Amino acid sequence: MALWLLHEHITNEPDNKIWRQYENDPFILRLRAKNLMTDFLTRVPYPELAHSLLETNRGLAAQIAGIAFERMVRRQAPRERRECHSKSASHELGHHTRARSFRMGRF
Question: pTM of the predicted model, to two decimals?
């Protein structure tokens, strides 16, 4: 950006080609995103971030809300999965015991 400003100052005319290159430069885009969003993304929880983006970018808000929802589901899933697994394991154990007893003529 400094070179672009220097060029514009010396020639007294804006160079749109240089400005477009600056605007689309991957390094500059990463730097701008880092400077603008680092604090916001680390400080604000995803549900609130999604809600705050609704007026600006509904698509991005929906994606972030989806991520927040998936995280919530994953936090809940291990507890439910363990409970379901222990119930189904005891059910399967009872089923296998009955089946083995039947095969051995003990039924």
Answer: 0.53
